[in-house]
Amino acid sequence: MKRLFVYGTLCPGRSNAHILENIGGQWQPGSVSGFYYERGWGAAADFPGIVLDERAPAVAGFLFISDNLDAHWPLLDEFEEGYDRVPVEVTTSEGQKITAWIYQLQPQVEERPAAAAVTEKAL
């Protein structure tokens, strides 16, 4: 797959955007359904994270499309330690549904209920 949905520091204009910019590709605004956490947990404690859920609100981000992604998955997987790369349905700004990869927070059984409870209360 030659598409990656990003919602955190890899987005254009953010602190780690250069990682994808160096790969070369196109950006397209979009969204996915999930619970967004300003800061993750575990290995990803200082970075935002998402837990996908079709019943959750839309989380805005960007679809990165590049023919060069296949050669860079090992590097991106290493960079995204603490996250799992999983397929997701992205809704583009034009309403089109596209399948892409996304880095989702890895499950942390002990900590997830507390984090989820805080997010649900805020909604």
UniProtKB/TrEMBL annotation:
UniProt cross-references to Pfam families, sorted A to Z: GGACT
Taxonomic lineage from the root: Bacteria, Pseudomonadati, Pseudomonadota, Gammaproteobacteria, Enterobacterales
Protein name listed in UniProt: Gamma-glutamylcyclotransferase family protein
Listed transmembrane segments: none
Source taxon at top rank: Bacteria
Domain Gamma-glutamylcyclotransferase AIG2-like: 4-111
